[in-house]
Amino acid sequence: xxxxxxxxxGLVVAGGSLRLSCAASGRTFSSYVMGWFRQAPGKxxxxxxxxxxxxxxxxxxDSVKGRFTISRDNAENTVYLQMNSLKPEDTxxxxxxxxPFCSGYxxxxxxxxxxxxxxxxxxxxx
Length: 126
Description:
Elements: E1 3-7, E2 10-13, E3 18-25, E4 33-39, E5 46-51, E6 58-60, E7 68-73, E8 78-83, E9 92-99, E10 115-116, E11 120-125
Parallel strand pairs: 2-11
Antiparallel strand pairs: 1-3, 3-8, 4-5, 4-9, 5-6, 7-8, 9-10, 9-11
């Protein structure tokens, strides 16, 4: 079992930055693929980024490439999402997620992830 708790959301002006954190409990955190998803009002939950167990591989949705960076600290059982150059369209509830393994397009489908945090609100004003 993995329990996830997000923090770091808030209100920011367009062009600003936020860093989201996701603290995980459970001995197997370091072996899990970790991901960030987001859900805007009236929209489906969408993949944002994911990182492999050792941080050796990352993937991003095209809309955040070059602006967001996912990272993890296995010693601290924490995964981060650094968000720079934020845009109003980034406004959403951001969720941390975990799964033992993923490959290819299966990583992008939220229904295939095993564990979820409660979410943290990010609001970007124009």
